[in-house]
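Predict the holo structure. Ligand: N-9'-methoxynonyl-1-deoxynojirimycin.
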Amino acid sequence: LLASSSSTVFVNAESTFIDTMHSDPATAAAAAQNSSLLWGIYRPNLYFGTRARLPNTLMTGLMWFGTQDFSGPDHIRHGCEERDGFEKYGWLKHDGRTFGTQELKDTRNNVELTTEFIKVPGGNHGGSWAARISGKPIRNGEPMSISTLYYVGLDGDGQLNVDTASYDVKAPIVGNVKELGNFDITIQQTFGHEKSNTHFMGATIPSGSLWRAKEFVKEILTHRAQIMQQQGATDFRPQDLYILPNQFFGGSTNILLIQMNYDSEFEFEVMFNSKSSPNPVTTETISSAISKAEDAFDKRFEDTFHLKQHGYSDSMVKFAKATMSNLVGGIGYFHGSSIVDESPTYEDGQNDHLEGPVARRPLPNPQMTAPASLFTAVPSRSFFPRGFYWDEGFHQTLLGQWDNDLSLEIIKSWYDRQDSNGWIQREQILGEEARSRVPEQFQIQYPEHANPPTLLYAISGYLDRLSNVTSTFSVGAFGNSGQTQFSSDFAEGEHDVLNGRLTNTDLAKQYLAELYPKLRTNYEWMRRTMQGGIREYGRTSRSRVEGYRWRGRTKSHTLTSGLDDYPRAELPSVAELHVDLLSWIGFMSRNLQRIATIVGEEDDAEEFEDHYKAIANNVEDLHWNEEQKAYCDVTVDEMDESVQVCHKGYVTLFPVLLGIVSPESKNLDHILDLMHDPNELWTPYGLRSLSASDDHFGTGENYWKGPIWINVNYLALHALKTHYVEKGPYREKAAKIYNELRDNLIKNIYSEYERTGYVWEQYNDKTGHGQRSHPFTGWTAMVVLIMQMGRA
Ligand code: 6A9
């Protein structure tokens, strides 16, 4: 397999050798439901990349660089990077299983790329798929000059054979991988000039290093350029200098790259054909399959979210589709080791060291774990392309509405990451690729560090969807205050969205029964590990043990709470009790009670109900501050007296955000006032994280000290709608706030998208401007649910 020189590597659309398609992909789709998640765009950290949902497997990816000058190899586009400065990029439509279309505006290189993906189910190995990559100048009349590279790599066992002899005629790559069977891959130009200007290379690279493909390419290109210059070449253009050598290096090729240079509009396609499938993808079938899938997407989007029906404009519907689709396009499959430190901790009473945590580890012992896998969405493809525990519950709250079973598969994958104690790593940094994006001091995970249990929030959304199809699931002590009204979120027409197999009563019960022991262990772990010291009360009665404290806190940060720099007590102390955490644990009790009832664990259900009552009681008893009219954290002062610590903002809202405060409660009235007061939390763009009247407001890194976050705003809207707008003396006030807040959020997130091209990590509370990471189609994508919710 050495040196083959070929300048006509790519077959034309007309000369394709594969027969036309045998059967309708839609029919086959139903049969292939089970394997429809094997192949996907599961490399969301890349602008475009596919892989099988398997460890150490076949992966493909796209790179490109500008050839207008000689700096190209230093600016190869591959992983999503904010510094690439694209004016816009993201999936416009993506159904999560069979189809997606993405647009990328690489402003500096004057090229607008479109990447389309289509899967054709069939056979025993996840079907076949195709990618179509096209490009054109953004600014017409200005030069566009780029070099594209598409690579196929095998990271693990199997074969990737390249028949160099017939390389220019038929499928250049023929392979076999155990779980994927036999396949072939064709990469060919279908439109564009410089057709002869194509180059390729095959090589053997060390296993596990495929994720470094970009560095590899950069080395090859610059090395070759050097050699050509040494040979005396002076008059080369960048596109003649930075080219692959048209050679195969090494014994058994495990990476193959195809390079094509363009100076005007172009299109090429990548076709992966699974040999066990009777439905091949061909150039002819790609177009019709894509347009069918696109129509189906549009219809399903409307059937699910009813945005047109509710009067949203076309451009707002387009925005909603793009926002949800980029969350879907953010779903990835990650595999590898992580780093965990299980060394013993010692907690001092109070820590007056400026930055130290209250818990010390005198003998740190970070260790690599065994490799593990996770199927998950990500908060941001560019900045945080990996799984985050509490982000994921929000992602799945939206995704569950779109594709119930896909969402349950992801939820299950997360609980598979739970250890025997009940702990799940908050940040999932699996493997070297993921680790390469995280500064060292943040790589280690600690087995007493929690994060809000939002996966249960997503599961409770699932239960609500179920209770809407059958009364079997409308059970539980909190059913009447909870589910019945909750179902109002899922008004007429919602049955359309119950598209999953797992909405079948028996299968749903089975799913929940399998998950239940893990949920219970996780709950017990939370209660045990986060236990607070309620010193002055002793621990005699049940309600007196219901007080909790986030671990892993320093003076300035409580990363585990998810609200990083939100102000807490001045000094970390073992005597602290955190009101948001108590609320989350109450939320767990309530939902576990629901699930235990469904799966027939009546005794457990009773126990959870007891816990819940004690928690609801202590929310008022321990945390309500009558002077401040807010739910506050608790700690002890220098005199060892219990004191409340009030920093009004998201933390002080949690008992309402999670529906623990009764609609009849006078305290609710005060919390509603707190929300609606512009001097406190109210802004024209959403609820700010910290009250404008708080001393810490807007100070320091100002991450959760004022800016507006969409996940917490969603919790507020959902709680209002579910618990407070229909019942109790404050229902009118609640409804007014709900309606105004909802309008403000939708208006601002949408107009910022129009203004900047992106959805953002957070929004400025003074200007409404999107800020920090982008695109951030993690929980900010919940704007789609906010649009769907309707007015109170
Ligand atoms: C640091 C920087 C290239 C912070 O969305 C994920 C999380 C949230 O869960 C959390 O509530 N974000 C929020 O306060 C982002 C966390 C990123 C930490 C990684 C490394 C990488 O620099």
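Residues 1-33, 475-498, 536-542 have pLDDT under 50 and may be disordered. The pocket of N-9'-methoxynonyl-1-deoxynojirimycin is lined by residues 379, 384, 388, 390-391, 437-439, 442, 562, 564, 778 (CB under 6 Å).
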